[in-house]
Amino acid sequence: MTDNDYSLDSMVCFAIYSASNAVAKAHRVLLEPWELTYTQYIVLLELGSNPDGLTVSELGAGMHLDSGTLSPLLRRLDDRGLVSRDRASSDERVVTAKLTDAGKTVLGELLASLGDLREAYGFDSAEQARELIRELQRITDGMRALTASAAGKNQTTK
């Protein structure tokens, strides 16, 4: 790649965009039998790995979602009986979400059924997957820092 090569095949941003679209589409198709969105699936995964539940704030921080996005999503999962939401008696503003037994069953079905996803990534080892995750997290952190810096500069120029 030369410094002035702007073809799509040479652009990191386009490779990530293209991969993201392909991953999202595969999840959409594979989650369809459960009538779940990708974000709902991720909520079930996160709650499944935290058996005592998580507050909406903790869940939002981990998923990088605000409560305005997360609350309606949790309500829909609660309406379907997959998640329970309980307000803390000490502070009614604090809501803890937790998988129900039905949610645990659905998550188990999902994990058993989505093996095709793992194969489609084409990793030879778990270490390869972990390495890609580390690289994507590094990119994500860099882009978030750049965004915050640019937003700050934009505010000072107005």
Task: Annotate the secondary structure layout.
Elements: H1 12-31, H2 38-48, E1 54-55, H3 56-63, H4 67-79, E2 83-87, E3 95-99, H5 101-113, H6 115-121, H7 126-156
Antiparallel strand pairs: 1-3, 2-3
Describe this structure as you would to a colleague:
The protein contains seven helices and three strands; from the N terminus they run ααβααββααα. With 158 residues, the chain is mainly alpha-helical. The chain has two domains: 115 residues, Arc Repressor Mutant, subunit A (Orthogonal Bundle); 35 residues. Strands 1-3-2 form a three-stranded antiparallel β-sheet.
CATH topology of the largest domain, which one? Arc Repressor Mutant, subunit A
CATH level-4 homologous superfamily of the largest domain: Winged helix-like DNA-binding domain superfamily/Winged helix DNA-binding domain
Relative helix content: 55-70%
Q: Which CATH architecture of the largest domain would you pick?
A: Orthogonal Bundle
Strand order in space, largest sheet: 1-3-2
Strand content: 5-15%
Question: Structural class given helices, strands, pairing?
Answer: mainly alpha
Main beta sheet strand tally, sense and closure: 3 strands, antiparallel
Cα-atom Rg, whole angstroms?
19 Å
Provide mean pLDDT, rounded: 90
Give the SSE order as H and E letters: HHEHHEEHHH
Question: Key terms for this structure?
Answer:
mainly alpha; 2 domains
Give a concise summary.
The chain has 158 residues and is mainly α. It has helices at residues 12-31, 38-48, 56-63, 67-79, 101-113, 115-121, 126-156, and strands at residues 54-55, 83-87, 95-99.
